[in-house]
Amino acid sequence: MDLTQLRPADFPGLSYPCACGRTHRVGIRQIHIGGGCIGALPQVLEGLGVSHVLLLADSFTRKAAGDKAAGLLREAGVAFHGKLFETDKPLVPDERTLGAALAALEPDDDVVVAVGSGTLNDTARFLSARTGLPYVIVATAPSMDGYASTVCPLILDGQKVTKPGVYPAAILADTGILREAPMPMLTAGFGDIIGKYAALADWQLAYALQGEYYCAECAGLMAQAVEKCARNAAGLRARDSRAVECVTEALVLAGVAMGMVGNSRPASGAEHHFSHFWEVDALSRGEAHPLHGNSVGVGAVISASLYEMAAPYLPDGFPLPDKGRILSCLKEAGSPAGPKELGISRGLFLESVLHAMEIRERFTILRFLDRQGLLPACAVELANRFYSE
Ligand SMILES: [Zn+2]
Ligand SMILES: [Zn+2]
């Protein structure tokens, strides 16, 4: 099957034996992306056969789309009650948030509708996975690729952990709402997507050198979605609908592709290990950290630089991620493009190049350079470049 010919709305329910040897399945029932699609919320719920809604929102997402969603349910006569997380800073997916969401559930509730992005999506997914109730996400920011994912990154006992979750039953990503998201959230989503250039290179490297499972179709699907975003990079600054739609589609497809191959290879490599390393460091000091996707974009610049340094040792003809293109796209879109811009110190930067790979057992350019004994020298060379002035 040529996945690159499908639109995001064609993926729900897909199941087919692929040339890679695996049967790919997409367990999401509905994907809606486009201007005004929030209006379909009552029909989406009807289609899922549910009628008692727990509606989750926080102080920010309520204004973005929560009031609108509540109005639509009221008009359509759908029984619902809301749980509003009142907060003046970004909500964290910790015990307090998860517990409060669980405590808000009533016996009659048969669906959870989350209005939000990262944290509320993960909260609803966790609730859904543990209670068996389906959940629907009404996206408020194209900031990360977790909408169509099946795992929940949470903060438990102050530590970042990933718990198993489930797919949302439906995703409603109204680009009219998404384009109004705060600019750092738009650039974060873009960074998370541009990071796929590096992630896909790592996947291919693991395939070439380690014989790791690889699906050319899923990789191709992701590469095409990334390319579309790259071509529309400049439009993001202007909140251009087309640019926002490309990023939203790519973020949703990243989740779909991960689900199809059964791991996060199509969307995550060393660039995510950098982001994770910096996040854990900030958490350990009780400090705020940059948005995930903004760190991932910078991680991709570092990864691509490492690929350039590794080029003489890589298999003949191995396609390097295009560092120049990654940099120019991030700059055009207004995303951070270097570790200094994120407030990463030189010391932390050096440490992350040397140790980010320890975050998980996954073969990437970092492990390749480590195996060659080249990583320490590359780390110093890069630090000199990024922290020259
Ligand atoms: Zn395949
Ligand atoms: Zn990501």
Descriptive account of the structure:
There is one protein chain. With 389 residues, the protein is α/β, with parallel strands linked by helices. It has two domains: 145 residues, Rossmann fold (3-Layer(aba) Sandwich), CATH 3.40.50.1970; 204 residues, Dehydroquinate synthase-like, alpha domain. 51% of the residues lie in helices and 13% in strands. The strands form three sheets. A six-stranded parallel β-sheet has the order 3-10-7-6-4-5, sandwiched between helices. α8 packs antiparallel against α10. It starts with 14 loop residues before the first strand and ends with a helix. One zinc ion (ZN) binds next to α8. The site of one zinc ion (ZN) has 7 residues, from α8.
Gist of the model:
Strands 3-10-7-6-4-5 form a six-stranded parallel sheet, sandwiched between helices. It has a two-stranded antiparallel sheet with strand order 1-2. A two-stranded antiparallel ribbon has the order 8-9. It starts with 14 loop residues before the first strand and ends with a helix. The chain is α/β, with parallel strands linked by helices and 389 residues long.
